[in-house]
Amino acid sequence: GFDTDSNLNRPGVFRLNIAAGRTRFQELLGYPPEAQADHHAQIDYTALDQVLPHPMYGLQGWVSILNPGPLTGDVARSLLRDARTRAANRQHRA
Question: How confident is the model over 64-79, as pLDDT tens digits?
C-alpha cells in the first residue's frame, strides 16, 4: 500500500528519485513544492520518461522519472550533478 501511484510493479519499470530543491522543482513543474497537493490528482505518476513530482516527497522538492530516456536523460544528469554538489557542500560545512 505504500507509494502505489507510480505502479512500479510493471516489468522493466524503475523510478529515479532526485532531490531537486524547491527552486528547480518549480522551474521544472511550473509550481512550487508546497502546491503539490493541489496538482496531485491531475498527474499521471505512471508516465515514462517524464519529469514528475515525487508522489510522496514532492512537498520536499523531490522529483522522479520513471525509466529515464531520450526525453529526460539530459535533465536527469543535470539534476543528479546538482544534487551531488549540494550533498558535497553540506558535508564540507559539517
Answer: 999 999 999 999 999 9
